[in-house]
Write the structure tokens for this entry.
Amino acid sequence: MNKSLEEESGTGRVFFVSGIDTDVGKTVVTGLMAHALAAAGIDVITVKMVQTGCEDASEDLTAHRSMCGLGLQPEDAAGFTAPQIFKFPSSPSLAARLEGRCVDLRRIEECVDECARRREIVLVEGAGGMLVPLSDDVLAADFAAGQGWPLILVTCGRLGSVNHTILSLEAAKSRGMHVAGVVHNWHADADPTIDADAERETRRCLERLGFPDVVVRVPRVEKGSVLPQVDFSEIFS
């Protein structure tokens, strides 16, 4: 299942959007990036790799479309953008096991490849953090690395985020992943002093590991409000 960048199907570029933990704001950041790319004239689609805690439809995809001012897309109707949905709100492997199923990695790969054939950029939002288990022997980062997807890591400045960010970046490095950039998201629990230090330590870690020093800060995004203008061009250049 491992693919080099040269072996990827389709013409579109695929990016893996993961986070340092659950509830760090991956869905908001993914929607915001999709909105910014579309505003720049880029044909973009988002994919929720595995959705748990839902039935029939992905609530994260609904949030992406809403942020972009879009309704159901052809890829949504065809089932390409939410290839795996499970009811129980947990890790994908547990949610699948509780339904007597397995996470179908081949199905995810095929659906993302189909989206890449149709669009210029595909943003694949993960579930939880980098090392969430998809099966008994495959973690999310293992799968993304095998696909050759560059990583966009979503972090924040809350207490404990520095440890989680460094662990995530080291996990990416150990798997040979390319890090396209880090998105430092606003968080309600972030102390200003800790928040500023978290960004500094993130940049130090990126430099130490040989990744590009690309950190994009995202301000607070109020539900239903006008979206802030954020420049993500460094990530996608």
Remarks:
- The longest strand covers residues 121-129.
- DSSP finds nine helices and eight strands in the chain.
- The radius of gyration is 17 Å.
- The chain has one domain: 10-236.
